[in-house]
TrEMBL record:
Species whose genome carries this gene: human gut metagenome
Protein name (database record): YigZ family protein
SUPFAM superfamilies xrefs: EF-G C-terminal domain-like (SSF54980), Ribosomal protein S5 domain 2-like (SSF54211)
Protein family (similarity comment): Belongs to the IMPACT family.
Domain UPF0029 as annotated: residue spans: 140-195
One Pfam family in the UniProt entry: Impact_N
PANTHER family: IMPACT FAMILY MEMBER YIGZ (PTHR16301:SF20), IMPACT-RELATED (PTHR16301)
Gene Ontology biological process terms, A to Z: regulation of translational initiation
Family annotation (InterPro entries): EFG_III/V (IPR035647), Impact (IPR023582), Impact_N (IPR001498), Impact_N_sf (IPR036956), Impact_YigZ-like (IPR015796), Ribosomal_Su5_D2-typ_SF (IPR020568), UPF0029_Impact_C (IPR015269), UPF0029_Impact_CS (IPR020569)
Gene3D superfamilies tied to this protein: 3.30.70.240, Impact, N-terminal domain
Residue ranges crossing the lipid bilayer per the database entry: none
Domain Impact N-terminal: 19-122
An annotated GO cellular component: cytoplasm
Signal peptide: none
């Protein structure tokens, strides 16, 4: 998968009140339908007194598994809107549950669709997304007088700095695509007059915050 996006935390909870009904959004990363079902069962057990526990999930490298349930809400007003939000955000391998505690005010079909879709969308936004990429872990080492210049260049070129380690020198840990490493090394050597050291690490998955 060229662009694998998922939620930043492994699980997340967010809630809001709409016309006196309490809507609680729970989302988690999962790798299988069994894990998704376990998560749904856990949330349902936790909120067993709730009026509804509606769910939707997408699993697989091409989202081969897509399921939803309205859990007693009128057909098409809850699970489908949630699934459509997951699809729109292009998040992979996640399960979402929206728990509703009815507050006494009926929302109508349109209101329910907006409530479940909106709670899911706002919950995902609050959780944050990451893009998982295959990159080479590169350690770029400079002395202190060049650290601000290097930091500015990396930021300006939109390279994500995973970590900065300070000892006798400054070490920037940066994920870089293998095909770009030579160009980066050449550019930085020119920029910093050769006062730089680049150590090439292993290829691995990195999770870059999605802006």
């Amino acid at each position: 998968m060229n662009n694998y996006v998922t939620i930043a935390p492994h699980d997340y909870t967010w809630e809001q009140v709409i016309k006196k009904s309490r809507f609680i959004f729970n989302i988690a990363r999962v790798n299988s339908e069994e894990q998704a079902r376990d998560f749904i069962n856990r949330i349902t057990k936790t909120h067993h007194k709730a009026t509804h526990n509606v769910f939707a999930y997408m699993i697989g490298d091409r989202d081969q598994i897509q399921r939803y349930s309205d859990n007693g809400e009128p057909s098409g007003t809850a699970g489908v809107p949630m699934l459509e939000v997951l699809q729109k955000n292009q998040v992979h391998d996640v399960v979402a549950v929206v728990t509703r505690y009815f507050g006494g005010v009926k929302l109508g079909a349109g209101g329910l669709i907006r409530a479940y879709a909106g709670t899911t969308a706002d919950g995902i936004k609050a959780a944050g997304l990451v893009t998982r990429l295959t990159r080479i872990k590169v350690t770029i080492t400079v002395d202190y007088k060049h650290s601000d210049t290097l930091n500015y260049w990396l930021t300006n070129q939109q390279y994500h700095i995973l970590d900065v380690i300070y000892d006798t020198n400054v070490h920037f840990i940066v994920p870089i695509a293998e095909e770009n490493i030579t160009a980066v090394e050449t550019t930085l050597n020119d920029l910093l007059a050769g006062q730089i050291n680049i150590a090439i690490g292993d290829e691995t998955f990195f999770e870059i915050p999605t802006k």
